[in-house]
Structure formats: C-alpha cells, structure tokens
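Why do we care about 3D structure at all? Because function follows from shape, and shape follows, mostly, from sequence. That is the central idea of this module. The next example makes it concrete: a single protein chain, its amino acid sequence, and then its structure expressed as tokens.
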Amino acid sequence: MGCPAAAIVGSSRRRSGRRQGMSIGDPGALAQETLWVRAMTWDIRGKRVLVTGATSGIGLEAARSQYVSREAVHPERFQDSRRQFVFLVRGGEKALPEKEDVLEEVVDALQRRRGLQIRYRDFVGARKSVRIEPLSLAVYDHQLYVIGRPRGGPTHAYRFSRIETAETVGGTFPYPDKDSYDPERVFADSFGIIVDDKYPIEQIEMSLAPRWTSYVRSHRWHRSQESVVRSGRVHVRLRVRVCPELVSWILGFGPDARVIGPPRLKRHIGRLAQRMARTHHADGAS
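And the structure:
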C-alpha cells in the first residue's frame, strides 16, 4: 500500500502539450492510448503482464519495444520469460471484459478532455448520477479507477467496476496544469486509493510484536515510513490519511499490533477490536 504503485494513464504521460511518442492532435493518439489501456487491463484480467513505470516515466510502448528488440537479438533468453517474470494477480478487475464499452467511453473522454456523465454506485451501494472531469485512469491493487472531479469539486477516485454507464457530455475542459493536478502529489499522503479530504492526514505510530521486526525492515508500506525497535517491539511511523484502508491494515495484524497514536485512532481501533471479539464470541456460542 502507500502512495499507490499504480500505472496512471493521463497526466503522468503528458509533457509540454505532447504525449510520449504522439501528438495530442494526432488522429492516431486515441487509438494508441486505447491500446495502452487495453494492454494494461489485459494484465489485470490475468492474461499477461508487462511491467510499466508510470512514476519513472517509462511507458508501455517503450517497454514493449525494448522487450521486442532484445528478444530479436537473443530469442533463447526469452523462451521461458512468462514463467520467469511473474506478476501475481489477486482477484483482478471484475468489470472486464463485460464493460469494455464503458472503458472506451472513459478513455475517449480522457483523451479529448471532455466531461463524463456517469451513473455510479458508491461503496454502500447508493446509485448516483455525477458529471465529472476525468483526469486519469489508474490501476491500484489490480483494480481500475477513474480519477476525476465534479465541476468545482474535490478530486475523487471512482471505482471502475461500480460505474454502470458513462457518456461523454459537453465541450472540452482545460486540463489542469501540473501545479493544479499532479497524481504523485494527490496520492502522496494516501495509504491507498482514498484521497478524500474528509480523512485527515496525521502522524501515525503503532508497535508490532517482535516477530515482525525482520518483515518491517524489508517492507515499505508508504514512502513516509520510519521504523525503530524499542523494548523488543518494532515501531512503525507513517504520515498518511486516517482512512478505512489504514484501519483495515492495522486490524490485519490482529493482536500483534498496538496503536500508539494519534489517540483518536487508538480509541477507534480499540472499539472495533471489542466489537469483533463480541461478534466472534456470539458466533461461537451459537
């Protein structure tokens, strides 16, 4: 988790009014971008994986051309590559291939800087009709998200599989410059995909049982992470949004985790743990 190691399609490949390897006004640009997204979502469905680096500026086309050129020179080195280099998919994008027409509408609006009218079900299942300005298409935890914002509203990550319909509407909108919208900055303090301002950014500290020491030293959940061993327990500090994703992560350690601060989070985890204990006790009694 942490600032999502997501492949982001959209602004992250935009440089000085041009896409890498294509012009914004190029009639073939949309087709190339659609191919990019199709390949990316193909990976999500578990059929194939190409490692792309949105954060390092390496595009899919560059990765593909580099791969192909090396394979042409040394084909014997690549005959087992799909088993030698493996990306393990957990679940994958549930909405594909059934919603490929919706995906194409999203990509079209994203490339042409057009608004999108979407019918969307939120986390609790409530259906909403929202008009958004699409800013990026992102992959996080093997799932697709449309990063957009209602006109004049805050940036939000819309889960693609819960978008029931999408229709391009209105004229073009001015795509924000990097000072106004940069995915790296938007997600810098997020523990996962949630970027809503209603979840405050705070300094988090928890301690884990000694058996987690080696794991913590070799694992990074967020770029702000710091760790120290104190009195036998390993302490982890993060500066992130206090959101449901963070809470679920802490609870995942079970009794090995102890929240040090902030106090509000500590109390919340304590209440949840008590409720979980009552629930499981009741299930056992029945």
